[in-house]
Amino acid sequence: MANGRTIAVLSPGEMGSQVGRLLHDAGNRVVTLLDGRSERTRKRALAAGFEDVTGMDDLAREVDLAICVVPSLSALPMARRVAEAMTRTGSTLTYLDLNSIGPQTARAIGEVIGAAGGEFVDGSIIGNATQLTTNATVYLSGERAHEVAAWIDPPLETSVLGAEPDQASGFKVLYAGMTKGLSALGVELLAGAERLGLRDVLLEKYHSSQPGVYHFLEHTLPGLPPRAGRRSEEMSELADTLEQLGLSAHMAHGAEATLAELAERNRADGFPEGEPLDQLARWLGR
Q1: What is the CATH number of the domain that holds 41?
Q2: What is the reported pTM?
């Protein structure tokens, strides 16, 4: 049971702000760093009950647990910033990484935090930010995973996968490979259908013969363009994971490239969120 600890959430984006809100409402003091963040992010964090501390050194001194929720490629740099602050201040803390990273990145983060005197727990979230209390699980691994689970569950539902400090990250990228890989495939197929004048008949066939696939595409693709950059980074982590295991990663690299192109397209000509799947197909096929 959460019991009044001081917890840092780095950073208060879409997922991080919801994690922090739940932990704050459970009776914890939740802090973050808002210097340089947008006004939208600042308002969201303050509304969720976050306190803005003045710098990383103060954060390192004050917190019992630091939770990192950032884009995949920012995970290791953030851990280094926290470790440097721990070294400067002589502070110790437990560091929980909840990013979509591969086992190799998780191990590197664990080494950085451990060298600074901290404790590392590997973690990942399967589920949406809006469904953290109803349809999401925080997976944990590492020697102190059970202890951290007791700190955050409730309000978050947790599952401890084992004592190795890379199992939760491995689980996440392998799971994400299915969902993001299918998303990337759907993007390419819908763009092709639009250009061939087959959009409606293809969607109808998916609906009648592959209802599970259609439901996934309908609920996932319309919100994908603004999130495609992060999804591409996840596929990069998956590719590294598979290749370090001596396996091929052709599909992971393909999904990475497709999602990166979608992110660039969205930056240049954004797709309005909330539009249905057929409108996305029209946008993709332009």
Answers
A1: 3.40.50.720
A2: 0.89
- Dump pLDDT digits (tens) for 122-167: 999 998 888 888 899 999 999 999 999 999 999 999 999 999 999 9
Domain boundary among 165, 189, 207: 165
Neighbours of 5 (CB within 10 A): 17
Is cis: bond before 154, omega within 30 of 0?
yes
1 within a domain of the structure (yes/no):
no
Contacts 24+ apart (CB under 8 A), 81-84: 81/56, 82/10, 82/56, 82/113, 82/116, 82/118, 83/112, 83/113, 83/115, 83/116, 83/118, 84/56, 84/116
Alpha-carbon distance of 279 to 265, in angstroms, equals 15
